[in-house]
Amino acid sequence: MAPKKKFTKDQIIDAAFEIARIEGVDAITIRRVAEKLGSSIAPIYVNFKEVGELLEGVYQKTFEVSRQILLEQNSGHPFQDIGAASIRFARAYPVLFRDIVMQKNDQAKHSEEETGNLIHMMRMDPDLNGLSDDELKTILLKMKTFQVGISVMAANVLLPEDYTEEQMIQLMNSAAQDVISTARGRIEQS
């Protein structure tokens, strides 16, 4: 009898992630992942008690990929980088983006810690200098609304065919400047 193949949790999650990237999260089953690995289901169950546990690993990997895209932006304007990373993720992983953003999904909700991390990044942006945390949270929510909208359009190829990623980012930056200017105007009027 041939020895059973052994796989690490990361190898199993990578196989499941690849299925989700192409076909969506709902396509992930223990059997499908085993087939992808050229294995029986036994090694999957050695590492994961049930498919929900594996899905949690896939969501964590998805967020790691998203964070890595954000870290690669590094334009000197962290607030701009947040939006650019969303557009880039939506274009590179449209099926996963739709699964996470366009379906009811508790995984996609930002925790207080994640929101705090984004606010911390925003505080480092020279364009947002001097704004309070409450003002930054409001700006973040307004821009997240715009960012998700343009990212959905990018993931679903709803923008004109010749519309480049750079043009999407410029449009988002223009909207951000409008939101920031309005916030600063409100402060000056107070």
From TrEMBL:
Q: Which UniProt keywords apply?
A: DNA-binding
PROSITE patterns, alphabetically? HTH_TETR_2
Q: Which residues form a coiled coil?
A: none
Q: Write down the InterPro entries for this protein, in alphabetical order.
A: Homeodomain-like_sf, HTH_TetR
Which residue ranges hold the DNA-binding region? 29-48
What GO MF annotations does this protein's record show? DNA binding
Where's the HTH tetR-type domain? Answer: 6-66
What superkingdom does the record give? Answer: Bacteria
Q: Indicate what this protein is called per its UniProt record.
A: Transcriptional regulator, TetR family
Q: Which classification does the entry list for the species?
A: Bacteria, Bacillati, Bacillota, Bacilli, Bacillales
